[in-house]
Amino acid sequence: MRNFFSPAQLGHAPTRELHNGGFTAYAETPSRAQQIAAAIGGAEAPGDHGMAAIEAVHTADYLAFLREAPARWAAAGRPGDAMGYVWPIVGRRALKLDRIDGQIGRYSFDASTPLTAQTWDAAYWSAQSVLAATHAVLEGDRAAFALCRPPGHHAGADYYGGYCYLNTAAIAAQAARNAGVRRVAILDIDYHHGNGTQDIFWERGDVFYASLHADPATDYPFYWGHADEIGDGEGRGTTLNLPLPHGTTRDPFRRAQAVALDAIAHFAPDLLVLSFGADTWEGDPISHFALTTADYAVLARDIAACGWPCVVAMEGGYAIDALGANVRSLLTGF
Ligand code: Q9C
Ligand code: ZN
């Protein structure tokens, strides 16, 4: 199985985030990617597939904002990383504002996701890694792994948040569609709901989104991922949310995954994108499920047994010392 990762993804290193009412060290560190790369025997640098696949998912004004915001923040005389502090209430007009602070509110949804001068390059190469894995699968590989970091599933077409800037799973799914793949399914087994991916494909009948995640009644991102969210319009019935309680162990997780795989099988995809977060691990510092390292291989075998060509995109996972072993365990299942 080929693995893809670019060293340019390491440049993004925000110093801190707002967490539980105070500033803490940023959890989504460059060392996450280094630990994973070391544990899986290294990774190939992706080629540069350019902007087209990114522009097929994200709006032009959002991409321009992401690229320009850090310089504008610095020009405003601000030290440190660009961080927002004001957000529009749901339903407010999407005003075209001038000041950087207003624009951060417009293009983000939380205070845990700073922008740095290196953020754009790292996110761009994270997207190139998933595109390289997608092309490997389109060219006949059964599965390929993209060591995406920064992660992607919280980023929408025109917003960032949850440590995510460009939605790598969505970029992979849309690139496959544009290459002629008729139906694509995304299975998201990160601890958190992939609100960005859900939003991007909400009204799409050609891309199925299924997610297992901590119940948003108790967990981030709170405002998405409830069981009654099923998509709309052409996409009505092609979104499936399976919230799970704190303490979830392998067997209930595996049963929920089987429900998702059944629904995906009914949809009959030609390709699967797996959004994989290892923050479901029992020792994760910001999460509350109880999967073990060995469980990931079991879950991956259940997925692989369905027979769909599979692009695996890395999402979360914050127990740095266990992260490499957890990803290696998952990949052995393919
Ligand atoms: N006090 C991913 O796993 N912080 N993102 C939650 C709770 C944001 C996680 C704060 C968690 C984002 C890709
Ligand atoms: Zn997560």
Automatic annotation (TrEMBL):
Signal peptide location: none
Keywords from the named record: Hydrolase, Metal-binding, Zinc
Transmembrane segments: none
UniProt keyword Hydrolase present: yes
Cofactor section: Zn(2+)
One GO term (biological process): epigenetic regulation of gene expression
Pfam families from the UniProt entry: Hist_deacetyl
An annotated Gene Ontology molecular function: histone deacetylase activity
InterPro entries referenced in this protein's UniProt entry, alphabetically: HDACs, His_deacetylse_dom, His_deacetylse_dom_sf, Ureohydrolase_dom_sf
Domain Histone deacetylase, chain residue ranges per copy: 49-331
Record-stated family: Belongs to the histone deacetylase family.
Name the record gives this protein: Histone deacetylase family protein
